Amino acid sequence: MSSVKLTDTWRTTTFRLVVLYGGIFAIGAGAMLALIYYHTARYIDHQIDLILEAELHSCQIVPSQGLPGLITEAMGRDVRHIEIFGLFAPDRSPLAGNLQRIPDNLPGDGIPHSIKLAPSVIGKPGHIYMRGLLTTLPNQQILVLGREEQQIGEIRHIVVQALAGTVLIILLGTAVGIGLSAVPIRRIRHVQEVSQRITNGEIALRLPVSARNDELDMLAGIVNRMLDEIEQRMLDIKGASDSIAHNLRTPLTRLRSMLNRLLQLAHGDSEQHVAEQAIDEVDKLLARFRALLRISEISGSMRRAAFEKVDLKSVLQNIEEVYGPLAEEKEITLIVDLPEGPVEVLGDGALLFEAILNIVDNAVKFASTGGHVWVRLAPGPLVEVEDDGPGIAPEELPMIRQPFFRGEAGRNLPGSGVGLSIVGAIANLHGFHFNLASAGGKTCASLHCVH
Length: 451
Prior knowledge:
Elements lengths: L5 H4 L3 H49 L5 H11 L5 E6 L5 E4 L15 E5 L1 H4 L5 E9 L5 E7 L1 H50 L15 H51 L3 H31 L8 E4 H18 L3 E5 L6 E4 L1 H18 L5 E7 L3 E6 L31 H12 L2 E7 L2 E7 L3
Parallel strand pairs: 7-9
Antiparallel strand pairs: 1-2, 1-5, 3-4, 4-5, 6-8, 9-10, 10-12, 11-12
Helix pairs in contact: 2-5, 6-7, 7-10, 8-9, 9-10
């Protein structure tokens, strides 16, 4: 059984459901974490704003000469070292606090803002996120109050970790989806292989059914019941056709014997002529019944089990030996183009010889006197037989492979009109592709010998 490709899992319902629900879960989890982060950050910012406003009120009611001492005292109470103070003279020189200089990105409107402090501003390594405000006091001194947003950073870190965990869960779910998809894909591949064998003529085969009794098994059961009914009807039709052919062939053979006896007893030329015409018509009927039985035999053949390697080059060489003298007798040039070395396919040698023989026979039969027939064996392998006869009318081309159909160009030529039908039956048995094309005064029949 062929291996499962990763790209095949993308088309399975299981994988698509896993991806769909995984995507919904990821979007939901991301939205929920973002909402939690947003509201938590807003709450913390609000609490910091209240603290900053209280500290600003305390600084504003203290005399200007006592403000540096108040700032120093507040810094001493800050055991976590998260509070930021800065008192600057009107010329922006530092007077008190732990800020080295006034932050350039902090507006001086006295309203709390979230900003990012550079190391040169705070005197610490690395950047710091701060919630702070800047205001100008009545004595023109500049006051900066702030708090590090340490908690928000920690919450942000937690959210990022949660998102990473969500991504990991989604990847794990995708891997599980791929694993779960592999099982039905293998079963579908098995069903595909069995279906192809049924298409190739092994009508007795049935689609595999497992013990799971799932949707695939239900579908396989429906198809198997349909195949049982089709096979039975085909057998009934084939049996009826074979019975008719066999039952009619016997009285027709007797009729031919009686007509032959009448021919021997005939006295006048007109009586002999009528008897000969009757015998000729009976021979045509017998030939058609033999052809029908032959097609039925090939179509219902179980000879695939006995297939072996067949050298197409040897088959064409034998056909050249058979039809070379016949083509010369009709003044037709038979050109056979064969490659170096053997060209082998898996099949029934006798049937392949019969199929290609019928194709060449048609080409020689329809080629004009003094015309040409080309027989080529190309890589693929591909057998092509081309003639420069009258060709096939476009409206007749779709029907030319039907049993007993005779085109306008071949109505007066000998034959029963089933040669190409036999070729088609042999090609179907082997899983080969048989094609007919006619254009520009040439007709080409090709047998693509690939499974």
